[in-house]
Amino acid sequence: MGLTVAQKLIQSHLVSGEMTPGAEVGLRIDQTLTQDATGTMAYLEFEAMGIERVRTELSVAYIDHNTLQTGFENADDHRFIQSVAKKRGIRFSRPGNGICHQVHLERFGKPGKTLIGSDSHTPTGGGIGMLAMGAGGLDVAVAMGGGTYYITMPKIVNVRLTGRLSPYVAAKDVILEVLRRMTVKGGVGKIIEYTGEGVLSLSVPERATITNMGAELGATTSVFPSDDVTRAFLKAQGREADWTPLAADEDAVYDETIEIDLSSLAPMAAMPHMPDRVKSVTEIGPIKVDQVCIGSCTNSSLLDMLKVAAILKGKTVAPTVSLSIAPGSKQVLNMLAKDGALADMIAAGARILESACGPCIGMGQSPNSGGVSLRTFNRNFEGRSGTADAGIYLVSPEVAAYSALTGVLSDPRELGEPLHIDMPETFDVNDNMIVLPASPEEAKDVEILYGPNIKPFPTTDKLPDSIEAKAVLKVGDDITTDHIMPAGAKILPYRSNIPYLSQFCFGVCDKTFPERCKKEGKGIVIGGANYGQGSSREHAALVPLYLGVKAVITKSFARIHCANLINAGILPLNFQSASDYDEISQDDLLCLPNVKAQLENGEDITLEDRTTGKTYRLTYALSERQKEILLAGGLLNFTRESL
């Protein structure tokens, strides 16, 4: 029986375990990336391990999230990251060089390699034939130290593409269609692999758009083959030597197959407040638009930007619309400037933002009260834009640009004649904004620079024999990491200051939570299905750890957040029956008697509700290694003990 692309990538990097769906496998990691919203903590964790030099083939630290500097905090964090990078053998991408996933695709991604990043959209690298996965910062720190990265062996879903996209229908519409069919829960425990003749019609930037937003499926990652299209992209970047062919065997067997005829797709949009609430633009109708934001790691490539410029050329943005555009990298911005496309955007009335994440992470450009914002981003969670009552729609660059002109949500097929975009045969390559690390000898004299906003990693304790605590919070299904630990310009500067950050924990759900949790000293959180979907930010585990959360009991977890809870030493437990969730109320006094012994023995966990007198059985999906991590009180303790 032949292998799929994903299976080949896993097999070639397998350190431990068997490739049986549901089993834990350990993988050798070739490359890592971090960004500054999660990177400061990742490097604090790396420093705590006491390892002199990274042991990966390549590690890159990007500055792209916290670039709005309204105080010293972000600048101090950037300085800290740069000093660690110089000392520990990490390349440093300076502020303004671009969004981590866009730059990594352009300059560093290699087919056939493994990549983990402290950002949930790291699967962007799957567009170039990598096994690229989002992870918590501590997992990335361990990988930088040469440690193995562990995942549950996923099932492989074949999304077979036929036909080719019609004019003004985009790669964004492909992934929106996949989300419409599979939902934000449908990819959990799966890798999405794209096959079929339709793949050949998609450029690398288009493939990367699809794999990027595959994160919203809850999937482990998404991947395309590495073919002549991949080779041409790398050649244009001056990196043809990095190309390796990679394709599924003809007799490869998939766990599931989805068929999509690209020619049948229409321009679509994900409606507030979830990426899988997808309808066609014509179904939604011409709703009034207040704001349009174009960019993010999903849609900020040169191809996307040239399409936008062509639509805007010679026209003016509607007077009721604020249009902002953020090219994804310095390379893209430079080429737009030389081509004249940037002038077309500016002349039309666009506000040009720096090459960074910006509005996607809530870093500026919040829409007006109750406003409708069309965004070429990947997430439209409630409040993520910075405006609690805004309606955020996720669309393609073509839909965004045309709607900015009309002032209402519009189908760009109304433009008639298809766009003719001539992509250059070679890209402008200038890596002068990437700082190389010091040599091992020079690194001895490099000082790591800590700012006053940087606080120590929260301390963890070994798992006690029993846990007794109140249900300090009960929440419903599809709770995102934005609910648990919000983003935005007011909060992100404190990502390296867990004590300060704690006052915002679960603020979207219950503003009294931090105060109540601190008062109790410890607590248990009750959640619904798909708890912790969204960003890979480990702060959504570290802040509850700081506040005293000992366990989270849910109907089901999202992959990365579950791993982050384990790394933090917080028990991730599941109700044996979903109906048990309904019987527990917030403020009930709960007890996990003999939890340590039950975990050690591989038994179900007993939950006693001391308020109601009822007893329940809890299950867990933990490997033996993960049990050891929890018993040790978290991955940092476990790693120290292992070293």
Automatic annotation (TrEMBL):
The keyword Cell inner membrane is assigned to this record: no
EC code: 4.2.1.3
SUPFAM superfamilies for this protein: Aconitase iron-sulfur domain, LeuD/IlvD-like
Gene Ontology cellular component terms for the protein in this record: cytosol
Domain Aconitase A/isopropylmalate dehydratase small subunit swivel: 518-577
GO terms assigned for molecular function: 4 iron, 4 sulfur cluster binding; aconitate hydratase activity; metal ion binding
Coiled coil (UniProt feature): none
Listed GO biological process terms: tricarboxylic acid cycle
Iron-sulfur listed as a keyword: yes
Pfam families per UniProt: Aconitase, Aconitase_C
Gene3D superfamilies: Aconitase, domain 3, Aconitase, domain 4
Enzyme class: lyase
Cofactor(s) this protein cannot do without: [4Fe-4S] cluster
Keyword list, A-Z: Iron, Iron-sulfur, Lyase, Metal-binding
Aconitase/3-isopropylmalate dehydratase large subunit alpha/beta/alpha domain segment(s): 8-283
Entry superkingdom: Bacteria
Quaternary organization: Monomer.
NCBIfam families named in the record: acon_putative (TIGR01342), PRK00402.1 (NF001614), PRK07229.1 (NF005558)
Entries under PANTHER family matching the protein: ACONITATE HYDRATASE B, ACONITATE HYDRATASE, MITOCHONDRIAL
Family statement drawn from the similarity comment of this UniProt entry: Belongs to the aconitase/IPM isomerase family.
Protein name: Aconitate hydratase
Source organism (scientific name): Candidatus Fimenecus excrementigallinarum
